[in-house]
């Protein structure tokens, strides 16, 4: 291209951190906040976000349940022997 200037169009691929992901779009103020996850749902969501296996998720949930009940809350059948 000799003698002429080529015009370049700069296209931004950056998306805003707004709720819908679109620049300039804002969620309505009267929209309710999402409900807070329950206690046993929080570790489950964290494990799924880290791509743990379903079996590992089940084991973590068992231990979370036992720890929430306290040392005398959950008894093993072996304790009765």
Question: How would you describe this protein?
Answer:
By secondary structure, the protein is mostly helical. The protein has a domain at about 35-70. Helices cover about 30% and strands about 0% of the residues. The chain has helices spanning about 40-50, 55-70. Helix 1 (about 40-50) packs antiparallel against helix 2 (about 55-70). The longest helix has 16 residues, at about 55-70. The relative contact order is 0.08. The mean pLDDT is about 75.
Features:
single chain, mainly alpha, 81 residues
Helix content: 25-40%
Number of strands: 0
Q: How far do the termini sit from each other? A: 91 Å
What ranges have pLDDT less than 50 throughout 5 or more consecutive residues? Answer: none
Strand content: under 5%
Q: Quick one: overall form?
A: elongated
Q: Figure out the total of helices.
A: 2
What is the gyration radius calculated from CA atoms?
Answer: 26 Å
Q: Assign the structural class, choosing from mainly alpha, mainly beta, alpha/beta, alpha+beta, or little secondary structure.
A: mainly alpha
Output the helix-strand order.
HH
Instruction: Tell me, rounded to a whole number, the average pLDDT.
Output: 74
Topology overview:
Elements: H1 41-49, H2 54-69
Summarize the structure.
This protein is mostly helical and 81 residues long. Helices cover 31% and strands 0% of the residues.
């Amino acid at each position: 291209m000799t003698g002429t200037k080529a015009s370049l169009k700069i296209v931004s691929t950056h998306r805003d951190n707004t709720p819908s992901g679109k620049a300039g779009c804002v969620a309505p103020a009267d929209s309710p906040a999402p409900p807070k996850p329950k206690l046993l749902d929080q570790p489950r969501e964290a494990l799924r976000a880290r791509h743990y296996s379903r079996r590992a998720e089940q084991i973590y949930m068992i231990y979370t349940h036992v720890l929430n009940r306290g040392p005398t809350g959950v008894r093993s059948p072996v304790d009765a022997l």
